[in-house]
Specification:
The protein has about 150 residues and is of the alpha+beta class. The chain has a single domain, classed as Aminopeptidase (3-Layer(aba) Sandwich), CATH 3.40.630. It contains three helices and eight strands. Strands 1, 2, 3, 4, 5, 6, 7 and 8 form an eight-stranded mixed sheet that branches. The longest helix is centred in the middle third of the chain and has 15 residues. The relative contact order is 0.17. The structure holds coenzyme A. Coenzyme A binds next to strand 5, helix 2 and helix 3.
């Protein structure tokens, strides 16, 4: 199967947000400030991901990788890693020096993708979820990558 990983077109953002709500029920609609990427399979969205600039007190000027999702029939083709790398390339072009995210500790696929993309676990000195309503999960693992 051939996929193209790219920024979402404007008309695709609503579908991305709907998919996000299906994948991650109970945490509300994603922020309107989110910037979206898709893994496109023809006209179909096979995967989605977003970023949000983070201006919280604990980590100014960082970029938060919001949860990504790959539809079941399209998993195992490296799309998650491609969606991570596309966002890292964009972050670098934007002059961002630190990218961070979280996973739940039992999400082996997601952890494998982050490790493959060079992320390392960190323990926040100040819990950054204090000013990030979407990130408040007990037991979450926190991941960061510095861009040079
Ligand atoms: C997590 C998710 C995005 C992965 O998508 P994907 O496109 O299939 O992922 P990729 O193909 O890029 O990579 C999957 C990685 O998991 C690994 N993997 C696959 N099955 C695995 C398993 N049973 N145990 C451990 N690792 C596994 C793959 O080998 C690959 O790692 P590698 O780079 O070392 O080879 C997808 O499963 C998903 O949408 N899950 C539900 C939503 C979710 O959990 N999102 C992430 C929230 S942070």
């Amino acid at each position: 199967m051939t996929y193209r990983v790219r920024r979402a077109w404007k008309h695709e953002i609503g579908e991305c947000a709907d998919l996000y709500c299906q994948f991650f029920p109970g945490i509300g609609r994603p922020s309107s400030e989110s910037i979206w990427w898709v893994a496109a399979h023809g006209d179909e969205i096979a995967g989605f991901a977003s970023v949000k600039r983070y201006s919280g007190k604990s980590h100014p000027d960082s970029l938060f990788l919001s949860s990504a999702g790959v539809l079941a029939g399209h998993r195992g083709h490296g799309l998650h890693k491609r969606l991570i790398r596309a966002r890292l390339r964009w972050a670098k072009r934007e002059g961002i020096t630190r990218v961070f995210t979280y996973t739940m500790p039992d999400n082996a696929h997601s952890i494998a993708s982050l490790v493959a993309c060079g992320f390392r676990i960190f323990v926040p000195e100040v819990p950054w979820f204090e000013d990030c309503a979407h990130c408040h999960y007990d037991g979450a693992l926190y991941w960061e990558k510095f861009l040079s």
